[in-house]
Amino acid sequence: MSRRVERINSIIKSRISQSISQEVNDPRLSGLLTVTSVETSPDLKKAKVYVSVIASEVPAEEILNGLASSSRFLKRGLEELFLKKIPELEFLIDDSIERADRLTSILNQNRTPKIGT
């Protein structure tokens, strides 16, 4: 990935995080919603925005629907980046924290000392 795309990913992540927390007023986006990463295609036409949700009673599917319905607003907020093409935003749930917790739990279970051996 080029340094330019990395910089753009970082800026998009920051801008979308700020917009979600301060400007978007959607009850489906309650709880702690964090933009964990952004992966923009090399041609800057599409951007996958990964979000992590903590302490939300709203199902992940509803959160994705809320983000999808806000995507035009969030995309408009990216116009200040002065890119020729503002990427289409695709929101995905980042479940890496849950997977890491599961792996840690499995590893810890395998480390328990066996009595009598």
CATH topology: GMP Synthetase, Chain A, domain 3
Number of helices: 3
Q: What letter string, H or E per element, gives the SSE order?
A: HEEHEH
Structural class: alpha+beta
Q: What profile does the largest beta sheet have?
A: 3 strands, mixed
- How many distinct beta strands? 3
CATH class: Alpha Beta
Strand content: 15-25%
Round the mean pLDDT to the nearest integer and report it. 85
Q: Helical content, roughly?
A: 40-55%
> Which second-level CATH architecture applies?
2-Layer Sandwich
Q: In whole angstroms, how far apart are the ends?
A: 51 Å
Unreliable runs, pLDDT <50, ≥5 residues? none
Gross morphology: globular
Could you give the order of strands across the largest sheet?
Answer: 1-2-3
C-alpha Rg (nearest Å): 18 Å
Number of separate structural domains? 1
Characterization of the model:
The protein is an alpha+beta fold and 117 residues long. The protein contains three helices and three strands. A three-stranded mixed beta sheet has the order 1-2-3. The mean pLDDT is 85.
Using brief descriptors, characterize the structure shown:
alpha+beta, three-stranded mixed beta sheet, 3 helices
What is this structure, in a nutshell?
The protein is of the alpha+beta class and 117 residues long. It has one domain (3-111): K homology (KH) domain (GMP Synthetase, Chain A, domain 3), CATH 3.30.300.20.
